[in-house]
Amino acid sequence: MKQMLMHVDGDALRTAVLQDGKLVEFFMERSGGGSLVGNVYKGRVVNVLPGMEAAFVDIGLGKNAFLYIDDMLHPNADKQPKQKPSVTELAKSGQEIIVQVVKDQLGGKGARVTTHFNLAGRWLVYMPRADYVGVSKRINGDAERERLKALGERLRRDEEGIIMRTAAEGEEAAALESDVFMLRELWQSVSSRASAVRAPALLHSEAGLLHRVVRDSLTRDIDEIWIDSPSIFSEAKKLLTNMAPALKERLRLYKGTGAFGLFQEFRVSEQIEEAFSRRVPMSSGGYLIWEETEALTVIDVNTGKYTGTNNLEDTVYRTNLEAAELISRLLRVRDVGGIVIIDFIDMQQEESRSKIYARMTEEAKRDGTKCTIVGWTKLGLMELTRKKVRENAGKQIGEVCKACGRSSASDRTSS
C-alpha cells in the first residue's frame, strides 16, 4: 500500500509519502518562501570571470546568480563546438540575457542559472532549443521506448527538444500532444514578455508545491491520497481533473480532529522526528550518527546493541546491509544534496563490500533525484553524490539540538 498525505499547517504544506506505513519521501513548502527552481528571469550580466569560466547575473534577487560557461553553450552536446570558447566570447558586462534557475540560493551563495531552458508537464519536459528527443531511463521496454521516441520526433518543431517522463509510459498520443501544445504556448508567452520588459524581471514562475506534487509525484502506484484541508482537497481535485483524471477517485478528505491529526494517525510525526534526528536507531539495535555540514554529509554506522550471530563478519554485514537500506531512504526523506560519506562498519571480506555497494546502487535507482554511488574510497568509506537543487527539508522544519541530538522538527509536526 502506497499512500500520499498532505497536511496543511498554517502557511506550510507538508507532504509525506508512505510505503506500507513507512515514510519514504517528505516535501515541505511555506507560502511566500518557496523554491525558485524553474523560474525564468530576464537578467543583466554584472561581471564576467574568465578564471572561473562563469558570469554573475543580476536577476533581481539581491544576490547575483551564477552562470557557468557550460550552461551558456548549446543544450545539445552534439551541437557544441569541439573547442570550448572563452566565457568572454559568450557574455559581456551589461548584456541582457534570459536564464532559468536550476539551483536555489543556498547559504551565502546566489542561485545557479542556465540558458538550457525546460518546462515540465505531466507527461514530458519541453525544451525550446535542445533539438533532441529523450526517454526516461526508468522506462525499460524497448518497444515502448521506441514508440515514445518516434512520437516525440513527430511532435517537436524546428529546434525544440522533448524528454518523455516516466509517467508517459503507456499514455496515448493525444495526451502527450496536449502537453506539448500547452508548454509551447507557455514558452511563447515567456518569450513575448521578455521582449516587453527591462532586466532584471521575472518572466515565468514555477508552480507551487501542490501543483508540482500532483504533476511530478502522483503516479499510478499511489493507492490513496489523503488531504486534511478542504480548500487544498478541492484544488488537488481540479489539478487531477486536468492532469490525471484516473487518479481522482483515489483522493480522500481527512476529517479527523487535532492540529496534526492526519500525520498523527498515520504515525508520520514520530517518523519525521526520528528521520531528522542526529542519532537514528535501526530495528536491529544498531544506529546511525548523521552529521550535515556546509561541504558534505557524514554518516557513521554503529552496531549498538546488535550482537547478531557467532560470526563477526556476518553480524557486521547484516548491520551494514540494514544501514544501506535505511540511509538510502533517509537521503530521500531529508532530501540531502551534495557529497555524502558513509562510514560503514569495517568488513574483512571483499564479497561483503561488493554486496553493500550493489545494494546502495540498486537503492539509488529508486531515487527520483539523481544519485550516483561513487564507491569505496581508499580509507574504506562509501562515497556518493546526490543532486542538490533546493534547501533540504531539515533546514526548513527545524534544527537539531546539539545537546540531545533531537530534531525540532517534531515540535512542528506533533502537538
TrEMBL record:
Pfam families, A to Z: RNase_E_G
Signal peptide per UniProt: none
Known cofactor(s): Mg(2+)
One GO cellular component term noted in the UniProt record for this chain: cytoplasm
Limits of the S1 motif domain: 38-122
InterPro entries, A to Z: NA-bd_OB-fold (IPR012340), RNA-bd_AU-1/RNase_E/G (IPR019307), RNase_E/G (IPR004659), S1_domain (IPR003029)
Entry keyword Hydrolase: yes
Molecular function in Gene Ontology: endonuclease activity; hydrolase activity; metal ion binding; RNA binding; RNA nuclease activity
GO biological process terms held by the UniProt record: rRNA processing
Keywords, comma-separated and alphabetical: Cell inner membrane, Cell membrane, Endonuclease, Hydrolase, Magnesium, Membrane, Metal-binding, Nuclease, RNA-binding
Top-level division of the source organism's lineage: Bacteria
Entry-linked PANTHER family: RIBONUCLEASE, RIBONUCLEASE E_G-LIKE PROTEIN, CHLOROPLASTIC
Protein name (record): Rne/Rng family ribonuclease
Lineage of the organism: Bacteria, Bacillati, Bacillota, Bacilli, Bacillales
